[in-house]
Amino acid sequence: MNSPQFTINFRAVKRVLYVMLATLLSAASLPLLEGGQALAATNQMQSRSIQMSDSAISGTSITSGIGSGTDVTYEVSFTTADTTDSIVINFCDLDPIIGDDCALPAGMTLPTAVSAVTGHMGNWTLSNTTDGTGIELTDTAGTNSAAAGAQVFDLEHITNTTAVGSFYARMYAYTSNTNDYSCPHAQTTPTNCSGPGTYIDYGGIALSTTHSITITARVQETLTFCVTKADPNNWNNTTPNNPTGSAGDCSAGEVGATANLPALTLGHGSPTAVLDANNIDTGSIWTQLSTNATHGAVINLRNSNAAAVTPCGGLSADAGATCAIPPIGGVGSCTATAACAMTAGTAAFGLFVNRYNPTTGVGTIGTITPTAAYYNSGHCGTDSTNNPCPSGNGTTWYGMDASTTPANSGNTPATNVGNVTSTFGSTVAASTGPVFHFDNRYEFAATAALTTPAGIYTANLNLVATGTF
Question: Within a 10 A sphere around the Cβ of 44, how many other Cβ atoms?
C-alpha cells in the first residue's frame, strides 16, 4: 500500500537532485549535458569574433571577387584561459548553442587545404573537414603551441552560404590533438567522430550574410570640337545670344559670333586686299577639342577643290577645274608629307599647325600633336607664350598634302591618312588619348606668281575631328 507514495517521493527527490546538479554546473559556466554526457569545459572564450572579408551571399550573378561570396577569408579571434593543442570550429545554420542540431548553412563550403590556415599562430594545420560542418586545427609540433591568451588566425578559401541572414559558429579548444572532434554536436549516431568530447574552452559566434551592393554609373562618349576666327585669349564672356556659354571653351559667346566665323581673306593692301608675287600673306583660325576617347582623336582637313579631272587641294578660281595657286606639297622640291619653306613669287597655298596656349580661360589636359606634313619644329616662327615652338627661329614652314594615296578603308582614323582632296582628308593633328580644352592654331598662307591669272581664288575647307573610343 505504501509503494505508490514511495515512488512519488523518489521522483521528487530525483528531480531536486537534477536541479541542484544543473545549478552547480551553471554556476561553473558549463553547458549542462550533451547526449547524456556531462561536459568538462570550464571556461568560455572571451573577445570572440569572426571577421569576413566578404559578407555577400554566394550563388549570385557576381561569380568572383568582392561581392561574390567566394574565396572569402574568415579572421578568427578569441582569448582562451588555457593552453591549447586543438581547436574545432563548426558552422551551423540555426544557432550557436552546444548540443543543438548543427547543419552547415546552405551552399557554404569550407577549406580543405593545409595552406588555407594563415595568420598569427604557429605550428597549426588544418587536419579535418570530413564531416562537412566544421574544421579542426591541430598542433603539428606536438606541443601546446597556443598558450593561454589572445588567438588570431585566418581561414581562407571559404564560400559563403547562399542564404541571406544570420548563421553561427561554435568553437572548442582541446588539450589533445589526436582525436577528430569536428562534427555536428547533436548527431544521434556520429559517423566521423564521437561528439564534442572533453573540451577546455568554448564559445559561440553569430555572423550574417548580406546582399552585395552593386553600383552602376554610365559615362557616355563625348567629343566637343569648335572652329573659330576668334583668338582663344578673347573667349572671355558670354553674350545675350549664348547665355549658357563659358569663358575659355567652345560655348563662349565669341566662338560662334558672326564676326568670328572662320572665313579668311588672304592678301594685303587697301581698299582691297590682294595676293601678289612680293609677299606671303597669312591668316589664322583656332580650334578647341575635348573628348574622352580612350585611344585619342584625329583632326583631318578637307579641301573642296578636288575635281576628279584635275585634283587641286590649293586655291582655285574655277572650283578646282584648274589650280593656279597649287598646294605647297607639290611645288618644287616640297613633298606632301613634310612641311617646307614657302617662297614669295612661287604660287603656293599651305598650312602651319601648332599648339596654342591662351593666357585666359581654363586649363587643358592632354596633347594634340601636329603631323609632320604641317609642322616643323625648327621652322615654326618666333617663340611666344601663345605659340610654343621648341626651336622657334627661322621662317615658318607650311604644308598641304594633295597627293598621298588614302589608306585602305576599314583602318582606324589614326592610320586612315590620305590627302586633302580624299574622302576623309589629310590628318593635320592627332592625340593618343583623351584631351580637354586643347587649343590649336592654324595659320594659312598663300602667295601668287607673276604669271598667276587674275581672279578670285577660293577654297572651302573643313576640319573633321574623329575620336576612337
Answer: 16
Instruction: Tell me what pLDDT residue 145 has.
Output: 59
Q: 183, exposed or middle or buried, with CB in 10 Å at 0-12, 13-18, 19+?
A: buried
From edge to edge, which strands make up the β-sheet containing 426-430? Answer: 369-370, 426-430, 297-303, 461-467
DSSP 154-188: EEEEEB--SS-EEEEEEEEEES-SSS---S-TT-S
Q: What is the largest CA-CA distance in the chain?
A: 151
Strand, helix or coil for residue 59: coil
Report residue 115 as a C-alpha cell: 595552406
Taking the chain, what is the end-to-end CA distance rounded to the nearest angstrom? 102
For 393-445, the pLDDT digits (tens) are 788 999 999 999 887 666 667 666 789 999 899 999 999 999 999 999 999 99
Q: How far apart are CA 81 and CA 86, in angstroms?
A: 14
Looking at this protein, which amino acid is placed at residue 388?
A: P
Tell me the pLDDT tens digit for each residue of 259-270.
Answer: 999 999 999 999
Residue among 19, 52, 70 nearest 154 (CA): 52
**Nearest by Cα to 114 from 135, 145, 143:** 135
Cα–Cα nearest to 147, from 201, 73, 203, 205: 201
Mean pLDDT of 40-54: 86
**Is the CA virtual torsion 325, 330, 336, 338 positive or negative?**
negative
Model-level pTM?
0.72
Strand locations in 252-396 (E): 281-291, 297-303, 340-341, 348-355, 369-370
Paired with 146 in beta bridges are 84
Provide the pLDDT for residue 366: 93
CA distance 305 to 317: 10
* Residue that has been written with the C-alpha cell 578673347 in this structure: 234
